[in-house]
Design a protein that fits this description.
348 residues, alpha/beta, DNA polymerase, domain 1, TIM Barrel, 2 domains, ten-stranded mixed beta sheet, 10 helices, 14 strands, 34% helix, disordered C terminus
Length: 348
């Protein structure tokens, strides 16, 4: 019995490489442009959808190539309208992505890795460990799935994308940037990079790389403490990437891009819910052009990380605003389906 030939994933090829394929079989080079448009602008899931291409050519494409499209394996809907997708990849692995609806926005929260190689103690994803990076097309497909759900269930277009799902985007740098290029390109989804935010724990070397690559999207950093000892306890990664190094890289980012960074900051009961931590954050923001999102915590078990009292969040807001820092308190969405920040863990 013959072993079936593994077909090449056509979305790993550039337009030029697809052109080379058509020329090599004696066909017209312009066919490549048609195929490329179906793959990236029209988000075709299989070759049979490419209706302006002859049946014979489609059969030829099927012989040589595959479209390793994701499948939404399970969809859960929260009482607040949030939708969580368990997304099956071509190798059977699962990641999660989330549609967050508000009155003015439809936001896609998407994953960049299966699991995560970092060890943040408060995050459910970190307990999975990293199994692999997602390819650019797998990241792109999550966006398309949420775009389609926004149109189907809310009759509204996708407005924003946040790389805040499973994984650390800067540890999958090439594929993440390639996915953003496909999402923002006129040949792809044509979204504005200003509507995309990449969220990172803050890897100084890679933040400088983003600045040097002159990216146009927004940057958010999960900070959670502006005191090294405290931050290292929650995020052991901080021991080798100190707050001073992080500040220096963010100053570099601001000089090169002109953009402020957003600090994502969770307040926990008896951990960082005191004035000492709030004042340290205000001082740190004085060093870095920034604004702050105070995020309501979503417990992942009954351990040490528990939601702070609302009064603590208000105290942070007051101290930051007294220093002229823009601050928003973000209430959690999708908690009842484990779709909120820090809860994505493939429980299904």
């Amino acid at each position: 019995m013959e072993t079936p030939v593994k077909k090449q994933d056509i979305r790993k090829l550039s337009l030029e490489e697809i052109q080379d394929f058509f020329v090599s079989i004696g066909d017209k080079a312009f066919r490549a442009k048609q195929v490329y448009e179906w793959l990236w602008k029209k988000s075709a899931k299989d070759f049979d959808q490419m209706t302006n291409i002859s049946l014979q050519t489609r059969e030829l494409l099927k012989e040589h190539f595959a479209i390793n499209h994701i499948q939404v394996d399970q969809m859960q809907r929260s009482s607040d309208g949030t939708i969580k997708n368990a997304v099956k990849l071509h190798d059977g692995m699962i990641v999660e992505s989330v549609l967050i609806p508000t009155e003015t926005r439809i936001t896609a929260c998407i994953s960049s890795q299966v699991g995560c190689s970092l060890d943040c103690n408060f995050c459910a994803t970190a307990r999975l460990k990293r199994m692999r990076n997602l390819n650019a097309d797998e990241i792109y497909d999550q966006v398309v799935a949420i775009k389609e759900e926004g149109e189907l269930y809310f009759d509204r277009p996708l407005t924003n994308i946040v790389y805040m799902g499973m994984g650390e985007p800067l540890l999958n740098y090439k594929n993440v940037l390639e996915s953003i290029e496909k999402i923002t390109s006129p040949e792809g989804l044509g979204m504005s990079p200003k509507r995309i935010t990449l969220s990172t724990v803050g890897i100084p070397k890679m933040i400088k790389q983003l600045a040097d690559d002159e990216v146009k999207f927004n940057l958010a950093v999960s900070l959670h403490s502006a005191i090294d000892e405290s931050r290292t306890r929650m995020m052991p990664f901080n021991e080798k990437n100190s707050l001073a190094e992080l500040a220096e890289s963010l100053q570099y980012w601001h000089r090169k891009t002109g953009k402020k960074v957003t600090f994502e900051y969770v307040v926990w009961k008896d951990i960082n819910d005191d004035e000492k931590h709030a004042k340290a954050l205000a001082k740190y923001c004085g060093r870095v052009a920034s604004k702050v999102n105070i995020i309501e915590y979503n417990p992942i078990d009954d351990g040490e990380f528990q939601q702070a009292d609302p009064a603590s969040l208000d105290m942070y807001k007051r101290i930051l605003e007294e220093k002229g820092i823009i601050v928003n308190i973000r209430r959690s969405r999708g908690k009842d389906i484990d779709a909120a920040c820090g809860q994505l863990a493939n429980k299904s």
